[in-house]
Amino acid sequence: MKDRPRVLVVEDEPAIAELIAVNLRHAGFEPVCVEDGEAAQRELDAVLPDVILLDWMLPGASGLQLARRWRADARSRPVPILMLTARGDEPDKVAGLDAGADDYITKPFSTQELLARIRAVLRRRAPEQLRDSVAIGELQLDAATHRVSWQGEPIRLGPTEFRLLHYLMKHAERVHSRQQLLDKVWGDHVFIEERTVDVHVKRLREALGPASGMVETVRGAGYRLTAARSRPRHD
Ligand code: CA
């Protein structure tokens, strides 16, 4: 099961930070509060959050400067940023979005609005990872709960095998080259060799047991998930 989404809250006003943290925790998120850009940077260097709530007016570097810096950095680039600002005028909104924020919200805001915006940026970031389930033959995968089953029996997979199976199931009956799988499943894979795909396919097949035949090797082309071999053979 996926951990609670981690939210880095960069806000120097303790009362507001506390209020946000309480609401986030209550809504199933894991908030981490810091008061300025330096502390935020240390936190980012240690653990990448799922989303950043970034106040505009901060001591030291402003939210705008931080957003620009984090967008320029390859490691933090994929993390969605939601700017918090007391200003509501259009030029500031544009400046915030230009600096790389994904959305912004004006203080004072309601908890419901804040949660809705956070969920929206998370959905946009990972359209294929949230809350969908897919079934091919008797193989079922539920992305929301991270569960896979075959004929109703649970199958345990590591995170990479899970993502690989998810991708193959969502694009079943098609052949995917190793390079395509690296692009789609691994994403940031500059230092990953194509052979890595074979290693994970092997692990996936081992975990699938009687359903392993569904993952076919297509000689010279790559891999395909097919429903045609979803019946266990009784040799
Ligand atoms: Ca502030």
What does this 3D model show about the protein?
With 235 residues, the chain is α/β, with parallel strands linked by helices. It has two domains: 120 residues, 3-Layer(aba) Sandwich (Rossmann fold); 93 residues, Winged helix-like DNA-binding domain superfamily/Winged helix DNA-binding domain (Arc Repressor Mutant, subunit A). The chain is 39% helix and 20% strand. It is built from eight helices and eleven strands. The strands form three sheets. Strands 2-1-3-4-5 form a five-stranded parallel β-sheet, with helices on both faces. It has a four-stranded antiparallel β-sheet with strand order 6-7-8-9, covered by helices on one side. A hairpin with a 3-residue loop joins strand 10 and strand 11. The radius of gyration is 21 Å and the shape is elongated. The relative contact order is 0.09. It binds calcium ion. The site of calcium ion has 5 residues, from loops.
Briefly, what is this?
The chain is of the alpha/beta class. The chain has 8 helices and 11 strands.
List how many beta strands DSSP finds.
Answer: 11
Rg, Cα atoms, Å: 21 Å
Low-confidence stretches: none
Order of helices and strands: EHEHEHEHEHEEEEHHHEE
> How confident overall, as mean pLDDT?
85
Determine the strand fraction and express it as a percent band.
Answer: 15-25%
How many domains, in number, for the residues?
2
Distinct ligands: calcium ion
H/I helix tally:
8
Strand order in the sheet with the most strands = 2-1-3-4-5
Label the structural class.
Answer: alpha/beta
Which superfamily, in CATH terms, is the homologous superfamily of the largest domain? Answer: Response regulator
Provide the helix percentage. 25-40%
* Secondary-structure arrangement, i.e. CATH architecture of the largest domain: 3-Layer(aba) Sandwich
Named CATH topology of the largest domain: Rossmann fold
